Amino acid sequence: MVGGAGAVLRVWPPPIAVPWGWPPHPGVPWGGAGAPPHIPRGGHRPLQHTGVLPPPLCLSFPLAEGRFGGGLEGGGALLTSAPQLAHAIRLLLEYTETPYEDKLYSCGEAPDYDKSQWINEKEKLGLDFPNLPYFIDGKTKLTQSNAILRYIARKHKMCGETEEEIIRVDMLENQIMDFRMSLVMVCYNPDFEKLKPGYLEQLPGKLKLFSNFLGDRKWFAGEKLTFVDFLMFDVLEQNRTFEPKCLEPFKNLKDFMDRFGVSRVLLGSCCGCSRGPVFRASWGN
């Protein structure tokens, strides 16, 4: 059930499952059109999640006082798809059993990517910095994916409790963003095929830093799950999709992924959260 009692989901046309690696639109690098996200389930106050996706258009109407959005626009073209920034937020909403309702904006076909559906609405939402993702909870209106994650996490004491945990959370949050962007810059570059070997060559060194940082801890901040674990799972999953064997040398990272995956984050409440597409680029459809 979406959001809670009385929630309505309308889908038109019917969603079509598209596997990973589906060929991107002509002239678009890896990361383009993919499977439409499934609608998750949850259990606290209704929120609405919004993302930009290519057809099919999945539109769920607002239920109550919450809205959440997931995608980025810029430079006259859609630079990153909704799931790339929204997936960790969906997982956190599910883990905290927060009911929300997904609203998905559609964009037109390549190469123009008509964004009029979002553009016509973006200035009417009362956002300080109109963008996707957005999140509205009553009078609280947020953009920026990490700010949204922190807002949800604070309500559930998932930002670290001790000074050491808080420092680890703050540092890792920004390190993950740098790591994510290193893959983004390769995938959106017209010379993707030339740059890919260089990225794969330096990938083990970057993963080793995360492995050393995790050490023998259960979670990245310590013994308790924090929102950066959701970010870390997301970005490691992206890289493992990019290079399936990249985590093989790092047992503690593999164990982290398995531990996260068998928790109720994915098995219990998130069995309906779709992963792809990662990017609307050369790789990641």
UniProtKB/TrEMBL annotation:
It catalyses: RX + glutathione = an S-substituted glutathione + a halide anion + H(+). SUPFAM superfamilies: GST C-terminal domain-like, Thioredoxin-like. GO terms for molecular function: glutathione transferase activity; identical protein binding. Residues 73-160 form the GST N-terminal domain. InterPro entries: Glutathione-S-Trfase_C-like, Glutathione-S-Trfase_C_sf, Glutathione_S-Trfase, Glutathione_S-Trfase_N, GST_C, GST_mu, GST_superfamily, Thioredoxin-like_sf. Keywords: Cytoplasm, Transferase. Its EC number is 2.5.1.18. Its main location: cytoplasm. Residues 162-279 form the GST C-terminal domain. One of its GO terms (biological process) is glutathione metabolic process. One of its GO terms (cellular component) is cytoplasm. It holds the Pfam family GST_C. It is an enzyme of class 2 (transferase). It comes from the Eukaryota. The keyword Cytoplasm applies. It is found in: Cytoplasm. Belongs to the GST superfamily. Mu family. This is Glutathione S-transferase. It comes from Apteryx owenii.
